[in-house]
User: What shape does this take?
Amino acid sequence: MHRYAVVGGGILGASVARRLLQVEPDAQVTLLEKEDGLAKHQTGRNSGVVHAGLYYVPGSLKAVLCRRGVSLLREFCDEAEIRYDECGKVLVALDDVERRRLDDIADRARSNGVPGVRHLDADELHELEPNVAGIAGLHSPTTAIVDFAEVTRRLAADAQHGGATVRTSTAVTGLRETGREVVVTAGGEGEAFDQVIVCAGLQGDRIAALAGDRADPRIVPFRGEYYRLRPDRRHLVRGLVYPVPDPRYPFLGVHLTPRIDGEVLVGPNAVLALAREGYGRLDVSGRDLKDTLAYAGFRRFARQHWRTGLSEMKGSLSKRAFMDGARRYVPELTDDDVLPGPAGIRAQAVDPDGGLVDDFRISRRGRVLAVRNAPSPAATSSLAIAEHVVAIALDDAPADVSP
Assistant: This one.
């Protein structure tokens, strides 16, 4: 009987624990989470969008696992009776440059097998979203919304039903390989496992380093801040309203996102977080900030994108500046139409050259397999990522399995 430890109680960790028991029903699987409950960080603080796979480079892990993940997630939600709403998404072009970019995105979507994607002219856009301005659009009718925290809890319950042990309030502080075992230190005590799979999100690079894995890529945390529409203004959008991505910049920009609970989020921006788990503007961790500023990869990134960073910071400090971004798409919006909303932190891996790691990245050090980069659409792709990661774990793949 093999013994597996899964570090991290977000949607990916829960998916991996469940998948291990699907493949090896007799395995001993232990899920370790440092918080007092599951889905406390990225999983429970994202916008809840189930991405269809529009943007991703064909053949990349993101593209392949997103499309597979959508299918698995929809099937799981149906079986678990979790609400899953295909509300649809429209990318809105504001000028001719953006309209031309829609052609490239549509080509990628078709290559990735995204169903139903169609171009919209101005009249069709207005028919779909009467309050949205734009000269053209690209509609993805199968883009959906779901409560990923609820999905995580149900995945973990499935794993427990299959025999897994879930330990919350259990922080991993050591990983030491001894022959054919890995001793995991958590809560001051050591326990031996045959393999360890790290799905630790914001702490992923640090947990991997405990096993002697290489330092890079490192996590740089970016805080995304949201407002939410007042209930009487939620009618301004019918589905997801997104900008056309600008390939020159690393972040998407403000958009409008209906949620499964009826809320409509406006945002997010993207500002450097002063703590990896600091969701307030004044939350600071000396260790986290020092690690970020000391990292040459971050300094190179900052030199390349400082203008974008200043613009994002302006939106963080000024509600009017933030809402000006949203008004480009919904001109009727006023500053009084929104209330303070939640904030989340994106665990973005950055290479030493300053480049943002775009695709999912996985590494191995001995008997420890670590998911080193899993930003959006990781929640969408979680069940497919779990299939992929478990296959690697059981197949003794090479140390670096990034594409």
Observations:
- The radius of gyration is 21 Å.
- Residues 296-317 form the longest helix (22 residues).
- The chain has three domains: 3-48+149-217+359-395, 89-141, 218-356.
